[in-house]
């Protein structure tokens, strides 16, 4: 009897074990451990990719790099600011070439009687006319009341033999030709036919006013300073 019980018991245990194993092996697995692991390595700094290097070390390296970059950016910023500032400070004063052009000294001894020499002053042509006695007398006898822009010859010169003018036609800005036109010893603007006399006064043509007289003075008998 006892042997029957023992055989029976053993039989039941084996059945239970087999059933349990079958049940266990046929269970669904809900943990998706077969999915590939996502790697963010390529998004990490190069200095942090090596897991064997301590974070402290890379932190120190990055701190040093940041300080160097801040220093370089600061120096560049200061240099740019200084250049900008200097640009404005220099711009507030006149440029050297403009200062040099502000006044022009002209030697008169090489300008012969009857000749007009042309100089440049502030980008404009300056006519320096060494007038003959005949031209001086002619201009002094002109009836000023008949002129479009009435000015006496004495008002236009500091010394009778020297006429100093800006050589730009007062009509539209052409440069008149000396010793040309209908007036003896005068000037002619070919652009639209303006005639100026030997004192630079408009006598015929569309120019509305006389040729302009610049600011000048005699430094001595043979030198003038324009400007
Ligand atoms: S520009 Fe001289 S006449 Fe017109």
UniProtKB/TrEMBL annotation:
Family matches, as InterPro entries: bc1_Rieske_TM_sf (IPR037008), Rieske_2Fe-2S (IPR017941), Rieske_2Fe-2S_sf (IPR036922), Rieske_Fe-S_prot (IPR014349), Rieske_Fe-S_prot_C (IPR005805), Rieske_TM (IPR004192), Ubiquinol_cyt_c_Rdtase_Fe-S-su (IPR006317)
Segments passing through the bilayer: none
Keywords recorded for this protein, A-Z: 2Fe-2S, Disulfide bond, Electron transport, Iron, Iron-sulfur, Membrane, Metal-binding, Mitochondrion, Respiratory chain, Transmembrane, Transmembrane helix, Transport
EC number: 7.1.1.8
Cofactor: [2Fe-2S] cluster
Catalytic activity as recorded in UniProt: a quinol + 2 Fe(III)-[cytochrome c](out) = a quinone + 2 Fe(II)-[cytochrome c](out) + 2 H(+)(out)
Membrane topology: Single-pass membrane protein
Cofactor note: Binds 1 [2Fe-2S] cluster per subunit.
Domain Rieske residue range list: 132-225
UniProt superkingdom: Eukaryota
Name of the protein in its database record: Cytochrome b-c1 complex subunit Rieske, mitochondrial
Source organism of the structure: Melipona quadrifasciata
Top-level taxonomy: Eukaryota, Metazoa, Ecdysozoa, Arthropoda, Hexapoda
């Amino acid at each position: 009897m006892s042997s029957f019980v023992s055989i029976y018991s053993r039989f039941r245990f084996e059945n239970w074990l087999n059933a349990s194993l079958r049940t266990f092996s046929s269970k669904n697995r809900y943990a998706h451990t077969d999915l590939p692991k996502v790697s963010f390595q390529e998004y990490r700094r190069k200095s942090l990719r090596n897991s064997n290097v301590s974070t402290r070390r890379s932190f120190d390296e990055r701190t040093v790099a940041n300080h160097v970059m801040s220093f370089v950016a600061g120096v560049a910023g200061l240099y740019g600011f200084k250049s900008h500032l200097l640009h404005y400070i220099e711009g507030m004063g006149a440029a050297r070439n403009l200062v040099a052009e502000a006044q022009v000294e002209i030697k008169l001894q090489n300008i012969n009687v009857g000749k007009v020499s042309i100089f440049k002053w502030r980008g404009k042509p300056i006519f320096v006319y060494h007038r003959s006695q005949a031209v001086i007398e002619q201009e002094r006898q002109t009836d000023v009341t008949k002129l479009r822009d009435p000015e006496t010859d004495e008002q236009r010169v500091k010394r009778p033999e020297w006429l100093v003018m800006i050589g730009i036609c007062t009509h539209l800005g052409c440069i008149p030709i000396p010793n040309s036109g209908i007036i003896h010893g005068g000037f002619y603007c070919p652009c639209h036919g303006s005639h100026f006399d030997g004192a630079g006064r408009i006598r015929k043509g569309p120019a509305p006013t006389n040729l302009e007289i610049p600011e000048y003075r005699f430094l001595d008998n043979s030198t003038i300073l324009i400007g």
